[in-house]
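Practice problem. Given the sequence and the SMILES for pyridoxal-5'-phosphate, write out the predicted structure.
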Amino acid sequence: MTLRDHKYLPYGRQCLDDDDIQAVVDVLQGDWLTTGPTIQKFEDKLRQTVKSDYVVSCSSGTAALHLAYMALDIGAGDRVIVPAISFVATANAAVYCGADILFTDVDPDTGLMRAQDVMALIESLSPEERQSIVAITPVNLTGEVAEIEAISIIAQQYGWRMIVDSCHALGTTYLSRDGKNLAVGDCHFSDMEVFSFHPVKTIAMGEGGAVTTNDQMLYDRLCLLRNHGIERNAEKWISAPKSEIENPPPWVYEMQILGYNYRQSDIHCALGLSQLNKLSEFTDHRRRLVARYDQSLMGLSAYVKPIEPTRGCGAVRHLYVVLIDFKALGVSRLDFIRDLSSRNVGSQVHYIPIYAHPFYREKYGPQTRCGAEEYYARTLSLPLHVNMSLDDVDDVIAQISDIITGIVPA
Ligand SMILES: Cc1ncc(COP(=O)(O)O)c(C=O)c1O
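Answer key:
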């Protein structure tokens, strides 16, 4: 088989049309570059999309996580549970607040946190450790859904707050036990959910993120924290004299708590809004690509397996992950990736278990979670983005098939 003759297919990439570019140009030609009316429009659209009561846009998914942990007042002496498999930001943002991290294991075949992983972690802890847990953050990895409802029941039992990291899962729907079809981001079982709009995600904003919630107190706090802790609304001032509250001088604002500049800009929100308007188009196309991959991979099932879809979940995959039995194939993952790359097929590994990074190894000592290790050893993300055609998927599969036939002749 010859090398693919068209250009390199990255594992993920934004899909921008002229109307996205025009939306940004319109803002650049207008009056507001930073905090203007497009932010509200983007937040309103996202709120309708995920069916939450409130949305707070911010400068990245990492900022969204940090805002969410801060809104819960998480700090030194607190512990937060996160899955061993995720992007490091899920844990890091709690460490920014001074908290410690407890890593659960994950399903070796999906990388998702399960209720049984949470229970196993609890059983392994001392009573003091258990008491210091204040929050849990399951991750909707790849766009599939973790056992959110079952985990929320455990969280309630133990009095923990729950944030769902849905950075991969914009547009995904899932079924509750009582048969309701729910949208990821609607916070049906959680205090807050967070999203990222980094270019490889389902919609692109450049850098961008958001927190969703149904809790007005959390919403107010998130808004404060996003903007230096500054309150401009005189009705919410806490120490100004009555005369000032009744007749607020135009320059006065109160900084009530220590916040950050995590605001989003009108420029980014123009792009985000334009992209959000195409979410159902993007969703349909991503699902078509995933169905084609799933179907085509059946012929390679001895060595390459797609991630099993979560039951009742209408996933919009951000990543197309396959589990490859590199041991049985007798090839290293690195050689496999290099071979794919030489055939113009990009791929990536999501993720190294967070506890294995030097920062966390130094902080907590060596750790192992069997499911996470098993998942990590086999995982590979193949190209998945809206610019791709079904022929591109066929090409990727043909290249993988060719590599495998070269190693283990049929
Ligand atoms: C699961 C997860 N959480 C959080 C983040 C952080 O998002 P951002 O890159 O927008 O800061 C990412 C980004 O890759 C992610 O994949």
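Check your answer against the key. The chain has two domains: 18-276, 279-407.
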